[in-house]
Design goal:
Pfam families: APH (PF01636). The protein is of the alpha+beta class and 315 residues long. Helices cover 47% and strands 18% of the residues. Strand 1 and strand 2 form a beta hairpin. Helix 4 crosses helix 9 and helix 5 crosses helix 8. The radius of gyration is 20 Å and the shape is globular.
Length: 315
């Protein structure tokens, strides 16, 4: 991880920030994030980690930052990138004989959403739908991945089987029939404009802040991609109690109506995300150089999850 002192030099040389500047580690996962205080003005600095499976190249990074700038101009409450002295949203920094990339974002006021009241839940649903609708008009010279059937089902099962073989754990052949049923349902989803398009990709409560004064602010679009719009709704389905989720869904549909097959498929899609989550965690452990012991725990938990999903009724 890059040291805070080195990042302070980068901030002073790269951005037009008021002094004094303070920089403190905030959190790490697929990227490292630092809170920045520039004479009372607050920002978040992201230091991109290399070798992530969902970020293939610099173009993927630029796509996300362009998308955030676009959403900000359209009135969607997102943490948008701050341009550097050279008018760049993405900036390269030499570190340990390699280039690391950094981006500075405006601070998301408020606190992480947890238990939200039903009125705010409906508003949040409105915002997610508005984000999806505005995203349909976004154009970029850069590319981004598709969260298609392979991404959602095939890749997670393949990586699980790879680790199971290396770690000599029980096989998952029992899940084959269930996986095929999931795949059939996903294949029924429309790929028309509206139902399929740009999504946040990881819309869990840790990536949304709320305050009574400033409202909602969505951030960390590191997993944004082209995919089915119910992806974001399925993430929310997994994160909130049923009553809150239903209100969020109602708020969403007051802005963008779901087709019958979309709404029916959200529960199955939520199960698919539990499958995909394993690959994301294993990818993160690889990026961070974690031990085989940590990976084994993840794989064992994943096998248990597959058993639970396999025993559920399918509708």
């Amino acid at each position: 991880m890059m040291e805070e002192e080195q990042l302070l030099v980068t901030l002073r040389e790269t951005y037009n920030l008021s002094r004094p500047i303070k920089c403190k580690f905030l959190r790490g996962s697929f990227n490292d994030h630092f809170s920045v205080d520039a004479n009372g003005s607050r920002f978040v600095l992201r230091v991109y980690k290399n070798k992530k499976s969902h970020i293939r190249n610099i173009a993927d990074m630029r796509f996300e930052l362009d998308f955030l700038e676009y959403l900000h101009t359209k009135g969607i409450p997102v943490a948008f990138p701050i341009r550097s002295i050279k008018n760049e949203t993405l900036n390269a920094v030499p570190y340990n004989n390699e280039l690391r990339y950094v981006a500075l974002f405006n601070h998301a006021e408020g606190i992480q959403i947890g238990q939200i009241n039903l009125s705010d839940a409906k508003t949040f649903g409105n915002i997610v739908a508005a984000l999806h609708k505005k995203a349909d008009q976004f154009k970029s010279e850069f590319s981004r991945i598709n969260m298609d059937q392979d991404y959602l089902i095939k890749e997670p099962l393949e990586i699980l089987e790879k680790y199971i073989k290396v770690l000599k754990l029980p096989d998952i052949s029992f899940f084959k029939t269930r996986a095929n049923l999931m795949l059939q349902r996903i294949n029924q989803l429309p790929i028309t404009n509206g139902a399929y398009g740009l999504i946040h990709g990881d819309l869990n409560p840790s990536n949304v802040h709320y305050s009574p004064e400033h409202g909602f602010k969505i951030f960390d679009f590191d997993h944004c991609a082209y995919g089915w719009r119910i992806h974001d709704l399925a993430v929310l389905r997994l994160c909130f109690d049923n009553t809150t989720y239903k209100v969020i869904l109602h708020g969403y549909q007051s802005v963008r109506m779901l087709s019958a097959i979309e709404e029916k498929s959200i529960d199955v899609y939520s199960d698919v995300l539990l499958l995909r989550k394993t690959k994301d965690i294993l990818d993160m452990l690889e990026v961070n150089g974690s031990s085989n012991e940590e990976k084994t725990k993840v794989v064992v938990n994943a096998i248990e999850t597959l058993h639970i999903l396999n025993d559920k009724s399918f509708s």
